[in-house]
Specification:
With 79 residues, this protein is of the alpha/beta class. The chain has one domain. Helix content is 29%, strand content 22%. The chain has three helices and four strands; from the N terminus they run E-E-H-H-E-H-E. The longest helix has 11 residues. 16% of the residues are buried. Keywords: NAD.
C-alpha cells in the first residue's frame, strides 16, 4: 500500500486528508498514480491502496480504517 508516512497535520481527527478509491489496472498505473504523486507532492496526506480487491472480497482492517479516517474521498471511475 502506498500512503504518505505521516498522519495529517491539518486536523488531528483525520488519519489522511484524502483517500483515493479506484478499481482496475488501467487506472492504477496511469491516472491514479499521477494523481497520488501530485497530491503527495503538494503536501496532501494521501492514502492509496496498492492491493487489488476482488469483487465481493471483504475490506481489510487497515483499508477500512483508512476510509473512515480520511477527510475526503476521491472516487475514480474507469470503463
Amino acid at each position: 500500500m502506498h500512503h504518505s508516512s505521516s498522519f495529517s497535520t491539518s486536523n488531528p481527527l483525520w488519519l489522511y486528508d484524502v483517500f483515493i478509491s479506484f478499481r482496475g489496472k488501467d487506472t492504477r498505473g496511469n491516472f491514479v498514480s499521477h494523481l497520488y504523486a501530485a497530491l503527495s507532492n503538494a503536501g496532501i496526506n494521501t492514502f492509496l491502496d496498492d492491493e487489488e480487491l476482488r469483487k465481493g472480497e471483504d475490506l481489510g482492517p487497515e483499508l477500512f480504517r483508512a476510509i473512515h479516517g480520511s477527510q475526503i474521498a476521491i472516487v475514480v471511475f474507469s470503463g
